[in-house]
Design brief:
The protein is mostly helical. Helices cover 67% and strands 1% of the residues. The protein has a two-stranded antiparallel sheet. Helix 1 packs antiparallel against helix 18 and helix 2 packs antiparallel against helix 10.
């Protein structure tokens, strides 16, 4: 066994020990005073071993990706590969969601009192709802919003309002939207990695983007949809700064970045990833001007309609500490959140990040590897800033999906892909079949 592989295994073992420690310490704290506000620390889940309609399909998809994924990723033409990644990723995500059945796994996920769909009926007059949005954020305000509506800018809720307006209302369509859009994030990441780094690195990362344990939470949470919007913003920016249709891609990237920050306040941290793209891509200013022009469109529209982002965020901070955020102990979650991250990215990604983070090495990486390492390091930095902020105490298995998808391509640095893919699949299957997750 070579030294690098041994270090990879050490990293994976250390990550497993972090998860085990978070489970044991978290369970003790939760039994003592209930302050963690989760059923199976560090995840918002409950212990409930079960199988369901999606079980056979999940096992088959996992086995197929392990057996054929690396070979097909190396041989398929680029565009068919992207379609295969999306299609197989959807099959993996749908099968995991359906382990809990159609109603519990998909159709009811976004209909509970703290989710978005109960608020759809209050947006008959969208401009009026936006003007009054901040008045209903605090818990003691009249007709206060549910936790997720209050905790996000109105762009998140408006997505489901607009789906309802075009005849796609209800939990089934909302869940289908989140899975269908959310699984495109893998395609966006591959486009960005190929554009900034190297096609061979993107191809090596492809099976890991398909078989990510994060799929457990992409199906079905709105954060999977947020992750895809942010990922496409980054991918289009990468194309623009590398000179591919600079104007169009730059402007569309800006539009999506603008939408991203109106889907989730915390995704302003995607600026760190965007900065890495610009640093790695080019010194050209023209694409950045187009991106800036696109970015201001979304804030301009929401502000004109009466919603002030900064005011919403200011009030949200108060609301956060009125609820579970004011009870959950920072001293536990500041490190247990990282255990949640291990569970969504898997042991292979932990080992890949070990290789990706810049360090002294006897054989310096090539330019493509350096750029991929920079992208992964930026995502890790954004995640750590979110962690230290104290505004992400618990539930980061879904909240941090937009950052986590940029850690997954670090798996391109690994050797022995099939063995690592087995580890990824087994983790996802165990989580989905032993626990009843909150999403």
């Amino acid at each position: 066994m070579n030294r690098d592989l041994l270090r990879d295994l050490y990293a994976a073992v250390c990550a497993a020990l972090l998860v085990l420690t978070a489970v044991l310490v978290g369970t003790a704290i939760q039994h003592r005073d209930g302050s963690l506000r989760v059923g199976w620390p560090p995840l918002l889940a409950s212990w409930d071993p079960h199988v369901g309609p999606g079980t056979p399909a999940a096992v088959v998809v996992a086995a197929a990706v392990v057996a054929y994924g690396p070979t097909l990723a190396a041989r398929l033409p680029w565009r068919p590969l992207l379609l295969a990644v999306w299609g197989t990723g959807m099959a993996w995500t749908w099968s995991l969601a359906l382990v809990d059945g159609w109603h519990r796994g998909v159709a009811e996920q976004l209909t509970t009192r703290n989710e978005y769909l109960p608020a759809v009926g209050r947006f008959h007059d969208i401009p009026a709802a936006l003007r009054d949005f901040t008045r209903h954020i605090l818990i003691d305000s009249p007709d206060n919003w549910g936790a997720h509506v209050a905790g996000h800018p109105p762009g998140a809720t408006l997505t489901f309002v607009l789906l309802d307006r075009i005849g796609l209302g209800g939990g089934g369509w909302a869940g289908t939207w989140c899975i269908t859009v959310g699984t495109t994030a893998a395609v966006a990441v591959l486009v960005a990695v190929r554009t900034l780094a190297d096609e061979s690195l993107a191809r090596r990362a492809a099976p890991f983007l398909v078989l990510a344990p994060a799929a457990v939470w992409v199906g079905t949470s709105a954060d999977g949809y947020f992750a895809a919007v942010a990922a496409w913003a980054v991918a289009l920016l990468a194309l623009a700064v590398r000179g591919v249709r600079q104007g169009l891609n730059g402007f569309c990237s800006g539009l999506l970045f603008g939408l991203t920050v109106y889907l989730s306040y915390g995704l302003t941290l995607m600026v760190v990833v965007a900065g890495a793209v610009v640093w790695a891509g080019s010194s050209r200013r023209r694409p950045l001007l187009f991106a800036l022009a696109g970015f201001v469109v979304v804030p301009a529209v929401f502000t004109a309609l009466g919603f002030e982002w900064w005011e919403g965020y200011r009030i949200l901070v108060t609301r956060y500490y009125q609820g579970a955020g004011g009870v959950r102990p920072y001293g536990y979650w500041v490190w247990a959140n990282l255990a949640c991250t291990v569970l969504i990215v898997g042991p292979a990604t932990v080992a890949g990040v070990r290789r990706a983070v810049p360090r002294r090495h006897p054989a310096p990486p090539n330019r493509g590897e350096r750029r991929l390492g920079l992208l992964v390091t930026a995502a890790l930095l954004a995640l750590l800033v979110a962690d230290l902020s104290g505004m992400s105490k618990a539930e980061t298995e879904r909240i941090w999906l937009p950052f986590a998808v940029w850690l997954l391509p670090a798996c391109a640095f690994l050797t022995g892909a099939r063995g690592w893919l087995v580890g990824q699949a087994v983790l996802a299957l165990l989580v989905n079949h032993l626990l009843l997750t909150g999403w």
